[in-house]
Structures are given as C-alpha cells and as structure tokens.
Design a protein that fits this description.
By secondary structure, this protein is mainly α. The chain has helices spanning 3-27, 33-46, 49-52, 68-83, 88-102, 133-136, 139-151, 161-169, 181-191. It contains 9 helices and no strands.
C-alpha cells in the first residue's frame, strides 16, 4: 500500500477514534439526574395546580429553604394525608399550617418561648385535647389530628386556605397561614408522587 495513502487512512482513523472518545461521553451521559428531573417534572405536571391552589394565593408569599428533617416532615404529612383518604389540597392546607406553626420542625416544649403547652409540627396543645405530648410530637399522629379537624369544617375545600387552617387551629394570627400557600403547593407537587 502506498505510504502516503496508508498515513492518510491511519490519520483519519486516529481522528475518528480520538473524536469518538472525546465526543462519546458528551453524547452518552450515563448519569440519572436528567431522568430523575424529568420524572419529577412529569409527576408535578400530573397534579392539577388549580386543585392545589383553587382560590389563588392571598397576599405576599414567604419561602424557607428546607433541611432534611423538614423535608422528611413534608413527606410524613403527605403520607398521613393519603392514609386518611384525603386529597392533595388537604396536604397543601396541612403543610402551609405546619410551615406557619413550626417551620416544619417537630418542636418539643420550648420553655419560656413556648406558646402555653403547644408542641409538634402543628403546635397542638395537650391541654386543649389534641393528644399527649408523645402523640402530638409524632408527625403522623399530629397530621391525622389536624386532618380530622379539617374534615369537620363544612366547606373547607371552598374556603381560602387561611380560613380553613384558622378554623381548625384557632390561632391568634389567623391570616398568617396564607403566606405559605405557594410553597406548600410546590412541596405537594414535588413530593405527592414520590
């Protein structure tokens, strides 16, 4: 074979191999992140956003970044909501309430900083009949207790979130729940199907 032809063929082959090695990993990403992100997007798209926030948000919205414990509490609230046979809107109301009451932290007794004997995600009070300290600091129990109260509110699905939450919680600051509606809806959209 002609040495010039041979060098040309080897040069082309070398470029092809080198190009394939360089371009291969770029074109064949084996990470699962894009697949997971697509799955989360698909799951979130399956939830009817109109059902999550049927009245639109009221007022200025607040947002906090969640740590692992707070995220676990979101998932516990969603699991308890499903177990109670309630829908995504009930989870939004529950999470918004817990965001306002405890920033999704399962709070024990805070001493002088405590509001009476309020504890747990929903700041429920043993002295008001919500349950024992052990019960109301259990995320599943406290969520179930909140949802039981919510079920007893006639027309809660047709109320703005803050009115539904206030009817159950009887807070000194009834309008404060509204500021968490968007983040609560986002969390439900993100975790309902996970």
């Amino acid at each position: 074979m002609n040495s010039i032809l041979r060098k040309s063929i080897l040069g082309i082959a070398g470029l092809t191999v080198a190009g394939g090695l360089a371009a291969g990993p770029l074109n064949h990403d084996t990470s699962t992140t894009p697949v997971r992100d697509a799955a989360v997007t698909t799951q979130a798209a399956k939830l009817d956003t109109a059902a999550l926030i049927p009245h639109g948000v009221q007022g200025t919205q607040s947002h906090i970044d969640l740590n692992d414990e707070q995220t676990a509490n979101v998932k516990a609230i969603i699991a308890a909501t499903k177990k109670a046979g309630m829908d995504e809107r009930a989870a939004v109301v529950s999470i918004a309430t817990a965001l306002q009451e405890s920033k999704l932290e399962n709070l024990g007794h805070l001493g002088d900083r405590n509001d009476h004997d309020s504890q747990g995600l929903f700041q429920q009070r043993p002295s008001s009949g919500w349950g024992t300290v052990e019960q109301i600091t259990d995320p599943e129990y406290s969520t179930t207790a909140f949802l039981k109260g919510l079920k007893q509110v006639d027309g809660w699905r047709d109320m703005p979130l803050t009115k539904a939450a206030q009817t159950v919680q009887v807070s000194a600051y009834p309008d404060h729940y509204a500021q968490w509606e968007q983040q609560a809806a986002d969390l439900v959209a993100q975790h309902w199907n996970s």
